[in-house]
Amino acid sequence: MTIEAPPAAGRAVEEEIAAPPGRGGSSRDRLRHGALAVWSALALLYLFIPIFIVVLFSFNDNQGRFNFTWQGFTLRHWTDPFADPDLARALVNSVEIALISMAIATALGTFMAMALVRYRSRGRSAIDFFVFMPLASPEVVLGASLLAMFLTLNINTGFVTIVIAHVMFTVSYVVVTVKARLEGMDRHIEEAAMDLGASEWTAFRKVTLPMIFPGVAAAAMLSAAISFDDYVITAFNAGQTQTFPLFIFGATRQGVPAEVNVLATMLLVVVLILMGLNVMVQRRLARRDRAAQPA
Amino acid sequence: MSLQRRRKLLPWLFIGPGLLWLLIFFLYPLLNQASVSLMSGNPEQGYDLTWTFSNYWDAISEYKEQFGRSILYAGISTVLCLIIGFPLAYFAAFHAGRWKNLILLLIILPFFMSYVLRTVAWQLILSDDGTVVSVFRTLGLLSDDGRLLASSTAVIAGITYNFLPFMALPLYVALEKIDPRLLEAATDLYASRATAFRKVTVPLALPGIFAGSLLTFIPACGDFINAALLGTPQQYMIGNVIQSKFLNILDYPQAAALSFTLMLFILVGIFLYARLLGARNLTQAAV
What we know:
The structure holds two protein chains of two kinds. By secondary structure, chain A is an all-alpha fold. In chain A, about 70% of the residues lie in helices and about 0% in strands. Chain A is built from twelve helices and no strands. In chain A, helix 7 packs across helix 9 (about 200-230). Mean pLDDT of chain A is about 85; it is low at about 1-25. By secondary structure, chain B is mostly helical. Chain B has one domain (about 60-285): Orthogonal Bundle (MetI-like fold). In chain B, about 75% of the residues lie in helices and about 5% in strands. Chain B contains twelve helices and two strands, in the order H-E-E-H-H-H-H-H-H-H-H-H-H-H. Chain B has a two-stranded antiparallel sheet with strand order 1-2. In chain B, strand 1 (about 40) and strand 2 form a beta hairpin. In chain B, helix 7 packs across helix 9 and helix 8 (about 180-190) packs across helix 9 (about 195-220). Chain B is globular. Chain B: InterPro entries: MetI-like (IPR000515), MetI-like_sf (IPR035906). Chain B: It is a multi-pass membrane protein. Chain B: It comes from Solirubrobacter deserti. Chain B: This is ABC transporter permease.
């Protein structure tokens, strides 16, 4: 996109007129571009280093409980990462909680988003604001106030209260994500379906749902990911129940076992593979669409 | 039921369940917390509502240091995230070319690994016998017995690290929407690069700056994981106090008072920030 301008030595003024500063590929431009690239690379490195460390130390042949200094390569932590029953239990709990709260939050949030976008009823902006509120509250406040309520009502905290808490703070993410998808959608297609005799329910099932599906899927994955990784709100409402983040935080005092690094690495790899598959499927679908409509 | 009435009822049927969930598990707990914050008593005999407004005064005066530290750490981290994240988002939006998707993937990569575990990794990176400390000592940036772990620097570095993606992504979204032709037009009209950046890019990126700052500042203010893992009690923030009051000391009224104050502070902060940026937006548009 940049047009290479010849090096302007003595004819600076002429050069200015010939090529305004925005278009020039001058050495100053290249310098700025380079500096920007280096800065970005450093920023990405900052984000990447801790991840690298976690993966690396899953192979550390550590002696004793602490896994803080590199002592040589081993695969022994990878042979049986579920050896610690508490860790295994915590991981299973986290997965269960993430799936259950994902299902509830996605259902509740999708319907809310549809009503908020479709029906311009009074009080809509108030509800919009109200749904946004949990996103604008610090997690420690959400967790603490929920615990205060459970305590006041004499409700024992545990698995169920964690799910309740997770649905509460992920439902807003679902609403925001699905709303964004709905707002970019052409309503006329749905109306056309109903004009052609589809009932409201059929139009919803056959037209609306397939169209918003990518948004709903993204919202579901987002809510599951947030739920799975949450420490703060969970810590308040967990009672005796352990989750993966709670287990790790609790283990920091006696040293986090390397099996935790193994499991975290496995999860990372699984997510990356799923994302790669998704990209491949999308590309194939796009190609098929192009082939189907040669116009 | 007539069609007319059904049409009126339908949106509420859609909104109802979700709204109810939020009313019961978000709004009611907040109000309940306000009432808990006015109780008095002790952990053994329980607490009763006695309208003890002095809880607020006591809690704030006792923990004003932690409050101040939360705001300071969160503020510094937000500014650092902006300084680190803006060029990154700018590069991804305008100059990355075919590397764009890879850069975006790298920005969200941390989300795929446990937050607590990544913070534990910082413990290891900044530890006294780690590489970073020895390099800093050799360079003279740190005295020979100087430490990085268990210091404000470590806590701020951890918070900045953990919330950088939350800043970079909204910035990217805002910058990506900018039509490059606008910048070309500005420079064609003899605005210098710097002027074009100041008068075109920054105003158009303001929504991203606003969203990113909120997404960084709010969770950073309430965070206690970084202070707990990378700091000492000297670095504890208000989140640490609320957490230990609730879960260890069982002093619910004071914990509730602190938590409610934090919430109010953040709401007022968002409001002022929106007013400030909104006003600037208007003046920019008028020029």
